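The following block was generated as part of the benchmark described in Methods. Ligand: adenosine-5'-diphosphate.
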Amino acid sequence: MSEKIIGIDLGTTNSEVALYQDGELKVFEDQSSKLFPSYVGIDDQGELVVGTQARNQYAAYPERSIKSIKRKMGSDEQVIMADKEYHPQEISAIILRRLKEIAEENLGQEISKAVITVPAYFSDRQRQATREAGEIAGLEVMKIINEPTAAALVYESGHKGEKQLLVYDLGGGTFDVSVVRMEEAVVEVISSHGNNHLGGDDFDAVILELLLEHLRDEYEIEEPDQRVISRLRHAAEKAKIELSSQPFTTIEEEYLLEKDGNPVHLRMELSRDRYEELITPFIDETIEAVHTALRDCGLVATAIDEVLLVGGSTRTPLVRSRLEQDLHQVAHGEIDPDLCVAGGAAIQGAILAGDSVEAVLVDITPYTFGTDTLGMEDGIPIPYFYVPIIKKNSPIPIKKSEVFYTIRPNQESVQVTVFQGEEPDARENIELGQFSVNGLSEGPANNEIIIGFSLDVNGILHAEATEKRTGLSKSITIDNAITRFEDDELDSARERIKDLFGDRTEQVGDAEEADDNADQGRKADKDNDLIDKAKNLLEAVTDDDDREDIVALLEEISDARKNGDKEQFQTAVEELTELIFYIEN
Ligand code: ADP
Ligand code: MG
């Protein structure tokens, strides 16, 4: 057997080490984490510390701790750690050496060869410095590859033919977007753009700013000391990560400091909405960079076959939704975005070692799960409005929640229906279960109800609804949420849906089922486009009669959807098509 070649993602914030072996990709753990903080330090005993321990001491002892050394790679600048000078290569070598050891501890054998990744924009000098760091660490660097190339290799291993991918990488302190072309076995970065000082740290900073503001307003604390700030920064990152999967978070730091001899306990609630507002300018900048990268290689967005999400910060829902909206396609985040670069390096290693490489498999949900609510569009209420909570292709296990609101004052109960499917009209999806929460507290409408779903690898779906104000909650568990429709239950589900919608799904179940579904999907898309167009026209038309006609038809469409009346729906859609044609011409 040939010698094993490990893959290393030497990141600015975190590094990872992986190996592809026997058709399986393994990312090695250190202290039960696959993420290894890219920090080096000298502890109070004068001993070298690397990773989490170095990260933990960073805030308290910056003079004997180093972070983000990657930014200095390739420069002559030296860094000082505990009064001694080091070249950037030496600090990186310390990290690499520890990663090598982690792989060796996990494998129980010695490792001497590695593939290491670098950003696409790294110059020859920076690449050379990375290679030297590997050699200092006792590794033979078999190849230096670009990070976006590595990401493409993980997603597309086993793929044949030509493809153009856009790799959007938002890490802790850096942002890169690259367009990658794959042609058979050749992977090439054809353009790359980014900002070396933009990332998750900026998101933490906006939350930190809110916390400091809170301390000023509530406790008149103007300038807390470094220790307090470092605790708050940590809390901010934790809150940020929570907001990736839930609509609210509470930041609590007990005994944060003392004010006039009394302890100050900090408690601040933050909503995802507020947080998203604050990080929008950063995301805008990344979207602009995406367009610059596309322009640089002369491609239009539609020429991109796949969009890949890389870097821990791409777990932020707003990042993903903005990118998808902008590029009009679903982005891939199935492979852990923190780990996929190391995974790609490992695949490159396996290829160099002469191993055969197959497609990388991950546990993902093949379906979307969600619930329904009363939606509103331009003042028109839409009942059975489907709200996905866990989206198709999400890696599992997963836990997600969203906020919903009661519609009446003193509303005593809410009913939650759990659906599986992709249709905007919840009734067209498969109903998996239903439950209600009764005895809600009295008060005005818009009482916040948090609905959370969790799905595990065995396909067990747990749905829970909680009145935020009181904590009153109710839940159900659905077994086999993923597999249950793969056998004969599928037929009974089809029958049920058929009954519900009359002839609407008549064709479902015959041999051309897949095509029909696709046709229906396309038809639904077309109808939705038409409705959007009508809504846009509403603002543009000058004639009152035309406006009234459009509104009447939109209401009719909404009613028809509500009642599942296919004929009424079809007629209204046709009339609307004609009306739009008439107005436009
Ligand atoms: P780098 O490649 O720059 O070393 P990573 O890809 O490891 O960085 O990304 C680290 C960043 O990802 C950190 O800012 C971290 O807070 C952020 N992050 C990790 N998990 C999440 C999450 N679930 N939601 C939002 N941000 C996250
Ligand atoms: Mg990275």
